[in-house]
């Protein structure tokens, strides 16, 4: 919101010496954010001149220039010669002359210079060159602006170019501050300066009149609330639309960010900025019958003031006459009844509309406007009559109109909500010991009615503060006005005996272990395509239920991920495109796994600013799909580069399995790898990961086509585990064994069995059969070739035996080994290789 200081001073006592920085400092103290100071950036001698004469001189480029003699007053050198290219002025016209030494916006310094064969001793200025308009227009003829000043007088003060505006950011909950009235009230709050409310007028002065046909009906209320709360119509007859907008109004509108569009429209915009209530004016002679406020019929059409024909929804609130729609209520008027240079009779509308209805219409039609911005945030429901009267007064004073007796009004009764503010609540919430008298003083200063009640205050919020809804809002106002700098900064003391949960500790240990092993942690966006969820989010590539976002950031990826792998592929592609070819990445994050046939997003009600009950928490949890935390890995390129005497080591399947074992070690589990299949992974190079017989993830090499589709070259190996499940399977306790002082007995065994038997199953059988003496078993060789029959393989395991109470003999170790072999023979038909 831009606030011209001259305008602000009309309603609050801002010291004459106060600068923009002083006003910023004051407004920041009550919660506004400083943006920038805005002025016209015009300095130096800018004076009123009178054209004495000029000669038209054609140029070779086909352009005509005027060599003018301009009287700028004896104090500024009398008559000066000025070259001008504009053609819209005449001898005798009073104009604005910028003399050498002046600086115009740009900055554009003015100096005497030779041009077109003359020395131009200054410049005759247009409004755009002075910053009074954004348009390229002709020379200012002061008579057209309703001015007849003395030659040589200061044009900067005459045109209001010495004013400055402060721009502050207004948060969405403080719509009342989108007006000079609201900012003046806040300045008075911060400084104690006297405030004069421009809307405070006797009821007899703002009577709406009657006799104008008005019908209001809402057959499709949004959220059960009627779309229009107040609606006031006033009439003004005999206006002269050709009269110029006064310079003070033109300058203020420009500083406030609105361009001048003609006197009648300027007046409506001026009052909107002043009082915060958007105003719309209709050309009374272009209206057909009376005005009806209603919802649109689905598919109905309206051409708005921007020249766009809009197809309407049955949720859009309309202003209509007997001919049909003439405006989108609270957003933008229609072309058919707009004010123009021919308008002589005006119908003035000041209304209050329901905020959600206006917000939906503005977004549906992608049509933000100054009016909708205010209605969305809440307009004072008691200011409409005063705003309409202010417009009528200005049209009478400035446009020569006559206030009509016809009018109409709909006044929905406003009742202020009463809030109970318990004793001690503000101090307990904010942490400052406010005296009850100080709390009452602040609340009354912001416009509340405060009465003493049992155990505290009964507070009624003012009509312009719809954001004050409860005792927490009141406490915030007390802290804001008294000074946020008085709120102490005290860090809470963490209670003893608490820390990370076992799951949090385990997740951090896994992440730290992977990082220590040389992997880089990344965070990818959780949004994917449906086909990515199908390919990586299921074992066989079938389409499983996915969560689709209603308002996705990227419409090409509207689904929440079922797997972390698509995100890692995007990260890898981004790194490869920037020249990083050797990648070892991991991510720990949530995946979203909705169950088939279950509807999520069930509505529930919960009180704000209070801890939800167990029942409400259960409803919340039931309304969202399962979101387990996974860990995923990706390897591409080399894990170690080529060095003298050492070839590069590509990141293959064995590297990924080693990383999986790092996860297992950090989580405190034993993960088994057995051959499996997945849609996105290479057959024969895919492993299923299990813990205690339960599948927890997979590891494998991407199919070449899948890697190519992701724009990745070479072999790409990935792994993904359900980290939450891995941690749960690890259990609460970790058993620590003492180091044995007795030596180990080691033996190897080579078993011949079917090639389709997983090595992990053979290892488990050996472990079970060998009993407690077997300390460790590991696969050291998988041989298929000469000496082994077709369809079979030889697996060699290294066995380590140890007893806790004695030194094992070779015979005891052999006996245990053979017991394990016996189990493999029973289960898989294995035999010891000759």
TrEMBL record:
Q: Which UniProt keywords apply?
A: Aminoacyl-tRNA synthetase, ATP-binding, Cytoplasm, Ligase, Magnesium, Metal-binding, Nucleotide-binding, Protein biosynthesis, RNA-binding, tRNA-binding
**Catalytic reactions of this protein:** tRNA(Phe) + L-phenylalanine + ATP = L-phenylalanyl-tRNA(Phe) + AMP + diphosphate + H(+)
This chain is encoded by the gene named: pheT
What organism is recorded for this protein? Answer: Microbacterium amylolyticum
Protein localization: Cytoplasm
Please classify the protein's predominant subcellular localization into one broad category: cytoplasm
Give the matching Pfam families.
B3_4 (PF03483), B5 (PF03484), FDX-ACB (PF03147), tRNA_bind (PF01588), tRNA_synthFbeta (PF17759)
Q: Which InterPro entries match?
A: aa-tRNA-synth_II/BPL/LPL, B3/B4_tRNA-bd, DNA-bd_dom_put_sf, Fdx_antiC-bd, Fdx_antiC-bd_sf, NA-bd_OB-fold, Phe-tRNA-ligase_IIc_bsu, Phe-tRNA-ligase_IIc_bsu_bact
Q: Describe the location of the FDX-ACB domain by residue ranges.
A: 740-833
Q: What class of enzyme is it?
A: ligase
Tell me its EC number(s), please.
6.1.1.20
TRNA-binding domain: residues covered: 40-156
| Protein name, UniProt field | Phenylalanine--tRNA ligase beta subunit
Give the protein family: Belongs to the phenylalanyl-tRNA synthetase beta subunit family. Type 1 subfamily.
Q: Which cofactor does it need?
A: Mg(2+)
The protein's superkingdom reads: Bacteria
